[in-house]
Amino acid sequence: MLIGSLVLKYNLPIQRSGRRANVRLIVPQEELVSDNGKVRVAIIGVGNCANSLVQGVEFYKDACDDDQVPGLMHVNLGGYHVSDIEFTAGIDIDIEKVGKDLSEAIWAGQNNTIKFADVPHQDVKVYRGMTHDGLGKYLKEKITKAPGPTDNIVELLRDTKTDVVVSYLPVGSEMATKWYVEQILDAGCAFVNCIPVFIAREPYWQGRFREAGVPMIGDDIKSQVGATIVHRVLTRLFQDRGVRLERTSQLNVGGNMDFYNMLERARLESKKISKTNAVTSQLDYELPAEDVYIGPSDYVPWLTDRKWAHIRMEGRSFGDVPLNLELKLEVWDSPNSAGVVIDAVRCAKLGLDRGLSGTLVAPSAYFKKSPPRQFADDVAREMTEAFIQGSNIETLPA
Fold first, then answer.
1. What is the model's pLDDT at position 3?
2. pLDDT average, residue stretch 67-83
3. How far apart, in Å, are the Cα atoms of 44 and each of 135, 229, 267?
4. What average pLDDT does this structure show over 233-239?
5. Other C-beta atoms lying within 10 Å of the C-beta of residue 220
6. How far apart are CA 255 and CA 259, in angstroms?
7. What is the pLDDT of residue 35?
């Protein structure tokens, strides 16, 4: 029905392949922007990452399309300027955030990221969400649940005409993530999964999003210049330059609630899988499990939202001679994430505009640690640029 309505609305030519109705729309780039020209975004989890995303939209709202702007990969992405992103709702369980305007909630509770923009009143409320397993053993020490029942999330997303839902739930929120995904499917929204609960890479969920006729991008955000992408690029450099990587480690410390939550090691299984596979996927051979350690290490409160990553790589180069590398990366964790999410939500909206459904392969490969298909980052970038232009619209299931 969606493809048919697009064809009628824009009088579009189509291409058909084979005997089945495998239709590819040939949509002029200027027609890919929806009628209102906006990307309406709801956020699940109003923590530091949400804070930086909201600040970023305000900070870059007047950026010139033609400028190379520090901090942005795209000022205008497929016809959508950063200023076209509008927030429709925040969803949280923290008593210090629920009921507040989004502009206030991003500074409430345990949020402790850096301020780089003055965010005006948004007239966007933070609603009471579902807890499930979203509040772990350690987070319960810091966060008090808001009283009252969970708001009707499906109705909320529909009433606010939300296009894209972003999940910033805490690491380890397996049940909560799946519950929210069901609400997102019922509401008919696109989904950007920023946490290491595997949705976009799983055939079951790919099929569910295909049935619902909506796209998703996932899983687990790969920050702008974070520990994962730096480690990946260096691993690929070893591979391409003929150096045999034999052992590697990545130890991360930080002072935000993400790191505090990850002191509960039982919540880390998917996180460690996601970060480890993101790096080892860049090798053409398999490293023994005992020769790879990649994951969070500890919580250091005075770091606040800063993150320190220590990377060690040991290998053998020409003549079987040892070659060792050590690197320390210091970043503000949440702005580093927002620099990617600000593009991911616009790609998800392009997917909606084009009538795509299931997992968007190219944006997932470039923006996420655990996409359904891994590529070298330069290849994933080219694929994503092609997606933005409308020439690479591969989705899963195929």
1. 45
2. 95
3. 13, 25, 19
4. 98
5. 27
6. 6
7. 58
